[in-house]
Amino acid sequence: MDNDSLEQSASDLVADTEMRQVLDDLLARDEDITARAVARLHPRINAASSITRSKDRSSLLAKYQERQAEFRRWRGRPGKLSGVAAASALADRDVRIAELESQVALLTASHVAMIRAVGELGGFSKWAQFYEFYRGSRDQLAQLGALPEAKIDPLPPGKPKSS
Question: For residue 52, is it within any domain?
Fold first, then answer.
């Protein structure tokens, strides 16, 4: 190797290390990884085309973009949101939470009504027997307030019916 190629190789190694540092920083801050973003933060690269035209740099950029996409999939959210977009997403989630709470209230009320109807018809013991094997489910229904709470008054003693 001649002296010029050694200097070029050393320069590429430094640029590669600096580019990795910039890419790691972008990844850690969850900022979109683009050639333009790297060029903006890199101390020696001034243009995005310096990255996209180099096979090695372009490949390194693609690897980091893939890692970022994978991290974002794991987290289940897109990259940084603007204030308006974040507020909109939060409002959408609040609406969804309200809808789900309403559904839970409706289901709870309907189950309480169903259980009371079954109990009035004398079938509560059968219902309880069915849920005997589903104690966890019954406990959750009790926590939700979906099981009726009633005081049972004994019937007054009366004359036995004659047949």
Answer: yes
pLDDT in tens, 59-113: 999 999 999 998 888 776 655 667 777 778 888 888 999 999 988 888 888 888 8
pLDDT for residue 136:
78
Tell me the pTM.
0.42
Structure tokens at 148: 């009726």
Which range marks the domain in which residue 132 is found? 87-143
Q: Is 149 part of a structural domain of the chain? A: no
Q: Tell me which DSSP letter residue 44 carries.
A: S
Q: Would you say residue 150 lies in a domain?
A: no
Q: What are 32-60's pLDDT values in tens digits?
A: 999 999 999 998 888 999 889 989 999 99
State whether 98 and 138 are in the same domain.
yes
Domains of the chain: total: 2
